[in-house]
Amino acid sequence: MAIKAIILCKLGISVIKPVIEELKKIPQITKVMSLTGDYDALAEIVVETPEELYEIFANKIDMIEGITASNTHMVMKEFTK
Question: Which CATH architecture fits 3-74?
Fold first, then answer.
């Protein structure tokens, strides 16, 4: 069963476009959005295991220049209208 998570990112100054382009290169990330408010970007990621999520963070997301902080939430259940 797949695991879906939402990643909220705070970004540095003048890096929104390059960070979004780097996030879009990660195959497990299904959506990337630019936001207003406390966080600058949101990414939706779908993985098979918690270990896969860890590896993507450790080897890809944490390496992206311009992400100053992130907050990740695993989706427990999704409701559609």
Answer: 2-Layer Sandwich (3.30)
The rounded distance, in Å, linking the Cα atoms of 42 and 74 is 13
Task: Please write the tens of the pLDDT for every residue from 29-59.
Answer: 999 999 999 999 999 999 999 999 999 999 9
Question: Cα(80)–Cα(6) distance, rounded to whole angstroms?
Answer: 16
15-19: which pairs have CB atoms within 8 A and are 24 or more residues apart? 15/65, 15/66, 16/40, 16/41, 18/65, 18/66, 19/64, 19/65, 19/66, 19/67
Contacts of 21 (CB under 8 A, 6+ apart): none
Q: The whole model's pTM is what?
A: 0.91
pLDDT score of 63? 95
